Amino acid sequence: MKNYFGTDKAFRFEFPLDGDCVNKYDGVEHDGILTITARVVTGNGTDDVYINEKKAVFKDGAYVCDADITGYRNTLFADNRTTGEQTKIAVYKISDCIGKYRLSSDDNILFLADINDHKDVYKSVFENPYLAVYKKAHDLYGAKVHLNLFYEFDDVAASKFSTKRDYFNLSMMTDKFKDEFIANSDWLKFSFHAKSEFPDEPYRNATFTQAFNDIQRTHKEIIRFAGKETLSNVCTLHWGEGNIAVVRALRQSGYEGLTGYFEVRPSGRPLVAYYYPADFVKHVGARDFWKDTDEDVMYGRIDKVLNEITLEQVIPTLENIYSQPHRAGFMSVMIHEQYFHSDYRRYIPEFEQIVLTACKWLSEHGYTGAHMSETMFR
């Protein structure tokens, strides 16, 4: 597996790392230029090291030098003129993320089944009680909402509910409301999540073809019933577990960005972090964004899963994240659809209050709603 810290090399950048996304919390910003202090590890302090043609000085075990980060993609080049060693990395300046927040939800499909069942009754998709929560978050607090969709709801998923629920897949969804979905596509986006909820971690050991086919089938239906305008180029894969072949299938399907928790379980195993090693997952999880320059995929940190906390814990949780400069720039909160439904075994009666409380707090603290696609690629 690739050594993402570059510690297998004698001459390497210690900060930033290749693919790091920096903003004003990493340095000093002036006239559109972000000046950071780059650190390069090599030698014993007697070498002649330059970073982007500026002479570096040896300090605290590394060669340091101010480096100006200007446009979106920047190259930092380090040159050891004593040994002849050279190294370079790509660094991304993402200033548009500051003061933005995103609301997303995983495991979505039941709201579409309900809309389809009521296609001759509903005059608007927002008569669906679940979508109405997000419409309220948008209207009151400017939330932009991203829903990751399952292709199907099957008997295994239905067994987790106390009332009988019928099989449903996206091909069964009416296109009656396509124009309305398109009209609201500035704030409501859809993307692929998985074929179905079960089994757990379905793409951890999947093939490129398996993942690609599931993605394409889901995309075809989203475009049919909601319009291509609603299809995002960012998604969260179910369980955030996918080998490199699966990530390549996502990238080939148009996903330039993937989101995850980027945390490490007590056992040491990464949690919702695709295929990256635990030590590096901690690095990604401590920041808003990071880009895998080899695979051309940007990753975004989901700061909190709201169905994991109580209503009373929402504000203290957000305050804690807000206190961490490298995570406070862009705030990303997420929830899962099934917890909304009263017949679900782990139903959360305060679902709507939890969502609206989070959005209200973020809005009151100066955050405006944004899709990750509006911030992570510029």
Task: Kindly summarize this structure in a few lines.
By secondary structure, the chain is an alpha/beta fold. The protein is built from ten helices and 24 strands.
Description:
The protein has 378 residues and is α/β, with parallel strands linked by helices. The mean pLDDT is 96. The longest helix has 19 residues. Helix 2 runs parallel beside helix 10 and helix 5 packs parallel to helix 6. The strands form 6 sheets. Strands 11, 12, 15, 22, 23 and 24 form a 6-stranded parallel beta sheet that branches. Strands 1, 3, 4, 7 and 8 form a 5-stranded antiparallel beta sheet that branches. Strands 2-10-9-5-6 form a 5-stranded mixed beta sheet, with no helix packed on it. The chain has 10 helices and 24 strands. It folds into 2 domains: 82 residues, Immunoglobulin-like; 275 residues, Alpha-Beta Barrel (TIM Barrel).
SSE arrangement:
Elements: E1 12-15, E2 21-22, E3 27-30, E4 33-41, E5 49-51, E6 54-55, E7 57-59, E8 62-69, E9 73-80, E10 86-93, E11 100-108, H1 110-117, H2 129-141, E12 145-150, E13 152-153, H3 155-158, E14 168-169, H4 178-183, E15 188-194, H5 208-226, E16 234-235, H6 244-252, E17 257-260, E18 263-264, E19 270-271, H7 278-285, E20 289-292, E21 297-301, E22 304-305, H8 314-322, H9 325-328, E23 330-336, H10 351-364, E24 368-369
Parallel strand pairs: 2-10, 11-12, 11-23, 11-24, 12-15, 16-17, 17-21, 22-23
Antiparallel strand pairs: 1-4, 3-4, 4-8, 5-6, 5-9, 7-8, 9-10, 13-14, 18-19, 20-21
Helix pairs in contact: 2-10, 5-6
